[in-house]
Design brief:
By secondary structure, the chain is of the alpha+beta class. It has helices spanning 14-21, 37-46, 50-62, 107-122, 196-210, and strands spanning 3-5, 27-35, 70-73, 76-80, 84-90, 96-101, 140-145, 168-171, 175-177, 180-190. A hairpin with a 2-residue loop joins strand 9 and strand 10 (180-190). The longest helix has 16 residues, at 107-122. The protein is globular and about 50 Å long.
Length: 220
């Protein structure tokens, strides 16, 4: 995992960081709706997996918004690059598996890799010992997909005894309104690293990419 360490003495939000570090619950959550009309229709027309398309474009958005790559590790604030996505999957036994999707700059590479990784993870048992004592991967965000729920608010499970600063995101039910399609989107971030301005910039970047689905077929 490649990263650089933020020089706090030159960081404009160093005092804000110290302020929120004193909080017992420094995370906040924002929910909105994303218009996925162009992306959904494009995937149907060209035979792309819709889920892989929005995961890939989320990865692209992460790598365009530096504050989303800030992580607290020990006494350091690190900036990771490149960023990838870790997504919760539903296995055949209807229990959850956690799947790290490697960073791939081209969609064709991403969807091929994601297909292979998802199959391997779904076919594996969930074993608690696989996670105990392991270092948490930092160059990622944690995403869940709730295709059954058109939610308007969202919370995430966290271990407050071992806090982390990895953003938690969720996408909800694909819903049609007239000739448009939308999905609820939730994002939870650490306020010591990310302000509402940065969340807004990330959401706007993500929406902009969803509005340009032809990006999926560039450099294929």
């Amino acid at each position: 995992m490649a990263y650089k360490v933020q020089d706090k003495s030159q960081w404009s939000r160093a005092e804000h960081f110290k302020f929120y570090q004193g909080f017992t619950h420094p995370w906040y959550n924002i929910c909105t709706n994303l218009d996925v009309t162009e992306l959904y229709n494009y995937c149907k027309q060209y035979g792309h997996r819709f889920s892989h398309a929005y995961l890939y474009l989320t990865q692209q958005a992460l790598n365009q918004c530096e504050p989303m790559a800030y992580r607290i590790v020990g006494d350091e604030v690190r900036i990771y690059s490149p960023m990838c996505v870790s997504v919760a999957l539903l296995a055949n036994d209807e229990t959850v598996r956690f799947c790290d999707l490697p960073h791939k700059p081209i969609f064709k590479q991403f969807t091929q890799s994601a297909t292979e990784v998802e199959k391997r993870i779904k076919d594996s048992s969930f074993i608690l010992e696989q996670f105990i004592g392991k270092e948490m991967r930092q160059d990622t965000i944690h995403m869940t997909v709730l295709p059954w729920v058109d939610f308007t608010s969202m919370t995430h499970a966290r271990d407050t005894k071992h806090p982390d600063s990895i953003p938690k995101t969720a996408l909800g039910k694909l819903t049609q309104e007239g000739d448009r399609w939308r999905m609820p989107f939730s994002i939870e971030v650490h306020h010591g690293l990310v302000d509402g301005l940065h969340v807004g910039q990330f959401i706007n970047t993500l929406q902009g990419l969803f509005n340009q689905p032809s990006l999926l077929d560039l450099s294929n």
